[in-house]
Design goal:
This protein has 8 helices and 8 strands, in the order ββαααααβαβαβαβββ. By secondary structure, the chain is an alpha/beta fold. The relative contact order is 0.18.
Length: 239
C-alpha cells in the first residue's frame, strides 16, 4: 500500500530510516573512539572542542577533568549509545575529518536517494533531524556513495539547535525555523517516541520499519508505517 502526503517539506531521521544503524555502530563509532584522544589533545584550543569538553565536565560533575577523564566519559557514553550533545559534537568533528580524508563513505538504503531526488524535483523541501550533530549530518550527505547530496537538503537540525528528539517542542522549533506550517510537514523515523512527539506538534508522521533495525520488532505504535521510501508518495499542491 502506498501512503500519499500533500506537504511542503519532509524531515528525515538518519539511523534506521535513511541509513543502517549497523553502519553507524560498526563503522563510525569505532572510528570516533580511535580518534578522541588525538582530538582532545591536539585540538583543545578549538572553540567547538573546548565548548564540548566543558559540557562533558559539567555533565559528569568534574570541572577539572583532564583529557584522559573526558575521553573515558565519551567512551562510556558510546558504550551506552547515549545521545549526549557533547559526544555528538565531538563525533561530528572526527567524522567530518574522516569523510574529508576519504577514510569514510556514508551509507544509504537503496530506496532512499532516488526518492529524495524525486521529492526534491517536485518542489518538496527536505530537512534532516538527527541526534548526530549538524557537522556529522553535513559530512554524511556530502560523502555518500552517490556523491554530494547536500544540494537536496534545505536544513539540518540536531539536539543542540532543535532540542531532544522525543519532545514536541523540538518539532515546533523546527517548524518555526523552516517557516512551514506544522500540518505541511512530514517526519520519517523508525522510533515511536520521536513519531509521537512530531504528531503532538501537529506534523504528519510515518514510521519506517526495516528488517534488522533495532526498532523493527517493537514497531511504531499506531502511526502509519512503510517498509521503504518507495511506499511513500509526496507531492506539493500549488493551489
Amino acid at each position: 500500500m502506498t501512503l500519499h502526503y500533500d506537504v511542503d517539506a519532509v524531515v528525515l531521521d538518519i539511523e534506521g530510516t535513511t541509513s543502517a544503524t549497523g553502519f553507524v555502530v560498526d563503522v563510525l563509532y569505532p572510528y570516533s573512539r580511535s580518534r578522541f584522544a588525538a582530538l582532545l589533545t591536539e585540538r583543545s584550543g578549538d572553540p567547538e572542542v573546548a565548548r564540548a569538553v566543558a559540557q562533558v565536565r559539567e555533565e559528569i560533575g568534574e570541572p577539572d577533568a583532564d583529557a584522559v577523564r573526558v575521553e573515558k566519559a565519551l567512551n562510556a557514553w558510546l558504550d551506552e549509545d547515549r545521545k549526549a550533545t557533547p559526544l555528538k559534537t565531538l563525533q561530528g568533528i572526527v567524522w567530518s575529518e574522516g569523510f574529508a580524508r576519504g577514510d569514510l563513505v556514508s551509507h544509504f538504503y537503496d530506496d532512499v536517494v532516488p526518492r529524495l531526488r524525486t521529492w526534491h524535483a517536485a518542489g518538496v523541501r527536505l530537512h534532516v533531524y538527527s541526534s548526530g550533530s549538524v557537522a556529522a549530518q553535513r559530512a554524511w550527505f556530502t560523502h555518500s556513495p552517490e556523491g554530494d547530496l547536500t544540494p537536496l537538503v534545505s536544513g539540518l537540525y540536531d539536539t543542540e539547535n532543535a532540542g531532544p528528539k522525543q519532545e514536541a517542542e523540538s518539532y515546533r522549533r523546527i517548524a518555526s525555523a523552516t517557516g512551514v506550517a506544522p500540518g505541511r510537514l512530514l517526519f520519517l523515523s523508525d522510533r515511536p517516541g520521536e513519531l509521537d512527539a512530531a504528531r503532538e506538534a501537529g506534523w504528519h508522521a510515518v514510521g519506517i520499519r526495516r528488517p534488522g533495525e533495532p526498532y523493527f520488532e517493537q514497531g511504531v505504535g499506531d502511526h502509519a508505517v512503510a517498509g521503504t521510501f518507495d511506499e511513500i508518495t509526496v507531492s506539493r499542491s500549488t493551489s
